[in-house]
Design goal:
The complex is a heterodimer of chains A (108) and B (423).
Chain A: H1 11-21, E1 24-25, H2 26-36, H3 45-57, E2 61-67, E3 73-79, H4 81-107
Antiparallel strand pairs in A: 1-3, 2-3
Helix pairs in contact in A: 1-4
Chain B: H1 2-15, H2 17-41, H3 46-57, H4 60-70, H5 74-92, H6 94-122, E1 135-142, E2 148-149, E3 151-152, H7 153-162, E4 166-179, E5 184-191, H8 195-199, E6 203-206, E7 218-221, H9 223-230, E8 240-243, E9 246-254, E10 269-272, E11 291-299, H10 305-322, H11 324-327, E12 330-336, H12 346-369, E13 381-385, H13 398-404, E14 407-411
Parallel strand pairs in B: 5-10, 7-9
Antiparallel strand pairs in B: 1-2, 1-11, 1-12, 3-11, 4-5, 4-11, 6-9, 7-10, 8-9, 13-14
Helix pairs in contact in B: 2-3, 5-6, 7-10
Classes of the chains: A alpha+beta (108), B alpha+beta (423).
Chain lengths: 108, 423
């Protein structure tokens, strides 16, 4: 199946959503994204890590090193309170965008 | 909060770069390992799994570079790299680098000197005057244009006699005139009789001319002109200096540091405003047809420039009502002569620049007059003007003022009679 590009500006929203459920490391996030998008999205580490680092710098994520499920040292990211707030805002905006686009497409 | 986080992150990046880089390295390594492990579970050989994982990652260095670039403060790295590159390039081509640096240094130096010069020349208080802080320059303004215009003599009289905010309101304007005996141009300031007292200056020798001689051909020399033209001879007081063909009696010499109220503007002689005809043979200074003056006021101690602006605006409105033909939309612009007290200092430069444009024209005008003109009619010939209606100029007298402000040449002997010019 041909992969889709992640629409601009939505990667942060998806990362925050995934991390809202449980803390994960970079690889885990990329796998979860692929699974949840039914393998439509395959996010490149060259896009994923810059996003993670930016969100961490902005205080939306907090990272800590701990052993992974197969006992490997991995950097786990989890949402901060400020990240949770950003998630809510972005989610609401996305819902509006999706609603608006759908309305246009169906109404035309 | 976000700003604080970002700042911290930039600082971490700057001072703990090693640790940050190591973390990133470890994280990407972990990513690779986990990716490879999964591929091995799918049945690939360890070597093959690692190769595919590498390809999927897209190159560790590339990912790291993108992370660095997206970091706040990542730009600092780029700047640092650019600087290093620039230094290398300059070291490699020293001749080119030296030329470039010298060219830049010269051009920056040149423009800085011009700015410094202009600042030093124009953007400072006039030298040698008492309390320059209290001095206010006044010109007129047409509509909302920020271009200052000169003021008519009759309007000056109206302002002078009706204002209450200044302890004195003087007028001045610059023209180049001919020193007839030497056929040289001299820079003359045509000033009102209270000019020196408003500025609070004292002469170095002799005296300044005052109200008693405002209609007389009298001249006060600037110190530098006195040195240049009269070799600093104190006996020149009372002698004659022929300007534009008219013999003037020298009353005194200004102090060495007093160079007029227009900062940076050359000045050789001060003569009464009424002598303006030596620069403009056909000028009737009293008429409403010509405007030449800039005004100088000394604020009373308890008044501010804002007070002055308010009052002068009211007076300008009255003049506008009285003389709609000449004064429509004419407002006044006030500016502190001391630049530190001034918001719109540009107007200080505006006035000299104004004169600068006219310099060739004025020079030509004076030269075309030639020497001797006027002098051949005798030493005391002068224009005398009736200003009876203007003694109390105002809106109520507007028509009378208009009518009676005309001029006619009169042969004058002795002192001006009372009732002329000053009531």
């Amino acid at each position: 199946v041909e992969k889709l590009d992640v629409p601009q500006g939505t990667l942060d929203l998806m990362i925050l959503t995934i991390l809202a459920r449980e803390p994960l490391h970079g690889y885990g996030i990329s796998q979860r994204l692929a699974t949840l998008s039914h393998d439509n999205f395959h996010v490149n580490p060259g896009s994923l890590f810059p996003s993670l680092y930016r969100l961490e710098q902005d205080g939306k994520l907090k990272a800590e090193w701990r052993p992974s499920e197969n006992n490997r040292r991995a950097k786990y990211y989890k949402l901060t309170a400020s990240g949770r707030k950003q998630l809510e805002q972005h989610r609401q905006r996305w819902d509006r965008i999706a609603f608006a686009i759908t309305s246009v497409l169906e109404g035309a | 909060m976000t700003v604080l986080n970002r700042l911290l992150s930039v600082l971490t990046w700057l001072f703990h770069r090693q640790r940050v880089e190591q973390n990133l390295d470890d994280e990407l390594q972990a990513f690779l390992d986990m990716s490879a492990a999964e591929k091995m579970r799918d049945g690939l050989s360890p070597a093959e799994a690692r190769r595919v994982a590498f390809i999927e990652l897209g190159g560790i260095e590339q990912v790291k570079e993108r992370v660095r670039a997206s970091r706040h403060g990542g730009r600092l790295d780029e700047v640092g790299r650019d600087l290093r590159y620039a230094l290398h390039a300059m070291v490699k081509r020293p001749v080119f680098a030296t030329t470039a640096v010298l060219t830049l240094a010269l051009s920056i130096g040149a423009s800085m000197s011009v700015y410094a010069l202009v600042r030093g020349l124009y953007f400072r208080a006039p030298d040698g005057v008492t309390d320059p802080d209290q001095l206010v320059g006044i010109s007129q303004q047409k509509g909302v244009k920020p271009i200052s215009e000169v003021i008519r003599y009759p309007d000056y009289l109206y302002y002078r006699d009706h204002q209450t905010v200044f302890s004195g309101l003087a007028s001045h304007f610059w023209r180049s005139v001919i020193d007839t005996e030497r056929s040289e141009e001299v820079d003359a300031f045509f000033v009102s009789s209270n000019y020196f007292s408003v500025l609070g200056v004292t002469p170095s020798i002799g005296r300044f001319f005052g109200p008693e001689s405002e209609n007389d051909p009298v001249v006060t020399l600037s110190y530098s002109f006195w040195q240049r033209r009269f070799d600093a001879n104190p006996n020149c007081i009372g002698q004659r200096l022929i300007l534009g063909g008219v013999p003037f009696t020298i009353t005194g010499v200004a102090a060495p540091n007093f160079k007029g109220a227009l900062v940076g503007w050359p000045v050789d002689v001060f003569v009464p405003t009424m002598m303006a005809r030596i620069a403009f043979p056909d000028l009737d200074i009293l008429s409403r047809d010509s405007a030449h003056l800039n005004l100088l006021g000394r604020l009373r101690p308890d008044r501010t420039i804002a007070d002055a602006r308010t009052e002068m605006t009211v007076l300008a409105r009255q003049l506008e009502q009285a003389f709609p033909e000449t004064n429509r939309d004419l407002g006044v612009t006030l500016y502190a002569l001391h630049p530190s007290r001034n918001v719109a200092t540009v107007q200080q430069v505006d006035t000299p620049a104004h004169g600068c444009h006219r310099l060739p024209a004025a020079g030509g005008l004076c030269q075309s007059r030639g020497p001797g003109d006027g002098a051949k009619h005798g030493t005391r010939k002068g224009h005398l003007y009736t200003v009876g209606a203007w003694g109390e100029p105002g809106p109520d007298h507007s028509t009378a003022g208009d009518r009676e402000c005309g001029s006619f040449p009169v042969r004058r002997r002795g002192k001006p009679s009372s009732g002329l010019l000053r009531q």
